[in-house]
Design a protein that fits this description.
Length: 60
């Protein structure tokens, strides 16, 4: 179990800058969110994109 002191200050997020295909998605550093009451913070090691995600980005 990770201690909160071991977490980084920044995380990598994919920002949706405008409607469109994959080229409008931009990786950027953001402050790590602070969980509120009754919430937890989960460290994500990998994420995937599936066909419905791609179709939604194309406006379908």
């Amino acid at each position: 179990m990770a201690n909160i002191a071991n977490l980084p200050e920044k995380m990598l997020a994919v920002a949706i800058t405008k409607p469109g295909g994959p080229r409008v998605l931009k990786a950027e550093k953001r402050d790590l969110p602070e969980p509120g009451e009754g919430e937890i913070l989960i460290r994500v090691h990998a994420a995937g994109v599936n066909r419905p995600d791609v179709l939604q980005r194309k406006g379908a």
